[in-house]
Amino acid sequence: MKTTIDFLEQLLEGKINADERMFLESLDYIYPDSINKKDDSVLFLAKKMSTKFLIILGKSILFDKFEGELILGNHGKVCPLNHINSQYLREYFPFTSPVSHKGHPVTVGLGDRLGLASPGHLRLTKKYKFFPILAQQSIRELNLTGRTYKDVLDSVSWAVFQEGYRNGFGADGDHLKTEEEVQMALDCGFTMITLDCSDHINNSIYEMTKSQIEEQYLLIAEATRKDLEQKYMNKMFAVNENFKIFFNDIDFKKIVLVYLDTIEYTAHIYQKFLSPLNDRIDFEMSIDETLFATSIEAHYFVASELIDRGVKITSLAPKFYGEFQKGINYIGDKKQFEEEFALHFFISEHFGYKLSIHSGSDKFSVFPIVGRITKEYFHLKTAGTNWLEAIRVIAQKDPLLFRQIYDFGAKHLEDAKKYYHIKTDVGDIISLEKISDISLPNLLNDDNVRQILHITYGLILQAEGEDDQYLFKDKIFSLLNTFEQEYYQGLYGHIGKHLEKLNVEKIDVKK
Ligand SMILES: [Zn+2]
Asked: How far, rounded to the nearest angstrom, does the alpha carbon of residue 492 sit from its chain's CA centroid?
């Protein structure tokens, strides 16, 4: 703290009086990388009694703008990290605003359900070459955590300011389904839209007989049919020198029936919302939340049709072979995954967008394949694993709270399974009674424990006791605020392991 205060004194050109020094010394912590000088003011983040504030010393235009309590004979201000101040922060310090990730080969979505994880993620940008998408939340996650897109982006802006990170980050309105949701994310300043097309994918086709398919196919407008037949039916397409795709009669009709609606919906959303913004926003099409793996032919057809309709996608998320369950390793045949993943990649390369890998947390066994095949050009989304690292800190620091959270989660597993598909069942719930406190953090390496805690986060955070107080939420936040450095360290290690296995290029520190 002493060196930080000396540094502040230097910035203020030696103008620190006894009162000011006493005030600075009364703070629990000053975030050294957050110190910024602008006009005649020095700004920085500080913590007192587990709460963070923005402190401004020295008068200037921006001093007057920020909301807060005047101190030190009106020459200082203590400002809450509220929404209005977040907007001023983004205005005066543009590096705290999200931007498009185009042009960055490795982009990683780092969803943060609590709004506390980003500083841990940002520390990894000093070691690996990747562009972070720090704000990344789906509507499902917003609803389950009781947050809004404003909260999500505000937390990230403060985290970026805290860490003094200036190399850009994105904000992903993840798994948006409706026009209203897309509009809301754009209004809140999000720079990436992930359109979830699952409601428009017609999965029932896969259960139909050949004659039923023929029948359904004839219900499509004749002009559309003729146009598509001419383009694809019984035609061969060269994706690259060694890889050709052929659409036989029946497969073609099946693909049209399953995906036509999806393509039309995506084109509509693009024309209405994205096209007027001229590439400032990254647009991802996601067809991953469906029952069946996306076939190679279907992927080609969807991409080709989007491009013909003038839709520019930054990335596309197919459903890959095997199971990508939340918060645990890949389940399935790795050889088969590798073969199909390579073909998906060649298609994306051919059309010029990125492959996006959803539910990308903890898929360590296939990460080396992803890194190698894409030659480190991909988008990966992680989210729940960052929450599990928070739970690991709780297991280390407050075993009793961890036990209560786990028991609650286990009891509500069936409710949470309405929102998430996982393999863990009631029969997999283990009792913690005989497990010693010291062994609790290791439980976070057990797939069943991970999945239980992974999907019940919403219920855990929203749970209220009889006195209308939150059962866990306030305790979780208070503990993580107290042990924030431990949380950052845990995230650094865990997401670092992801980047390592993906073989993401390291930054040469010698330079
Ligand atoms: Zn997804």
From this structure: 16
Among residues 80, 81, 146, 155, which one has the least CA distance to residue 111? 155
CA distance 397 to 343: 46
Q: Ligand 1: distance of its center to the CA of 289 in Å?
A: 6
**d(Cα 303, Cα 329) in Å, to the nearest integer?**
29
Domain boundaries, the chain: 2-92, 95-142+152-385
Active site residue 174: yes
**Ligand 1 centroid vs 426 CA: distance in angstroms?**
25
What tokens were used for 352? 């010029």
Distance, CA of 491 to CA of 511 (rounded, Å): 26
- Residue 392 CA to residue 456 CA, distance in Å, equals 15
Which among 299, 384, 285 has a CA at the least distance from the CA of 345?
299
Neighbours of ion ligand 1 (CB under 5 A): 288, 358
- For 38-84, the pLDDT digits (tens) are 988 999 999 998 899 999 999 999 999 999 999 998 889 999 999 99
**Which residue is listed with tokens 């006894």?**
18
- Nearest by Cα to 381 from 367, 365, 360, 362: 360
pTM: 0.95
Q: Is 215 a catalytic residue?
A: no
CA distance 235 to 252: 10
Rounded CA separation 171/157 (Å): 10
The per-residue pLDDT for 119 is: 98
How many Cα atoms occupy the beta-carbon half-sphere of 97 within 13 Å? 13
Question: How many residues belong to the chain?
Answer: 511
Whether residue 421 has pLDDT greater than 80: no
Q: Residues 177-203: pLDDT tens digits?
A: 999 999 999 999 999 999 999 999 998
Residue with tokens 């650094």, as numbered in its chain: 492
Catalytic residue among 154, 172, 284, 297: 284
Torsions phi, psi for 317 (to 5 deg): -110, 100
The 10s digit of each residue's pLDDT in 106-119 is: 999 999 999 999 99
**Of 282 and 278, which is predicted with more confidence?**
282
pLDDT score of 3: 85
CA 359 / ligand 1 centre spacing (Å): 6
State in Å: Cα 286 to ligand 1 middle: 6
Mean pLDDT of the 20-47 span: 94
Whether the predicted pLDDT of 261 surpasses 70: yes
Paired tokens of 296: 């190679």
Which of 331, 345, 233 lies closest to 294, judged by CA?
345
- Catalytic annotation, pick one of 163, 174, 297, 389: 174
How confident is the model over 11-26, as a mean pLDDT? 86
What is the architecture of the domain spanning 95-142+152-385?
A: Alpha-Beta Barrel (3.20)
Phi, psi of 51 (to 5 degrees): -115, 140
- Which pLDDT score, from 0 to 100, does residue 511 have? 58
What residues are paired with 52 via a beta bridge?
Answer: 47
